[in-house]
Amino acid sequence: VQLVESGGGLVQPGGSLRLSCAASGSISSFDVMAWYRQGPGKQREMVAAARNGGITNYADSVKGRTTISRDNDKNMVYLQITTVKPEDTAVYSCAALGNGVGYWGRGTLVTVSS
Question: What average pLDDT values come out for the chain (114 residues) when binned by 10 residues?
Answer without folding.
Answer: 97 97 95 97 97 95 97 97 97 94 96 97
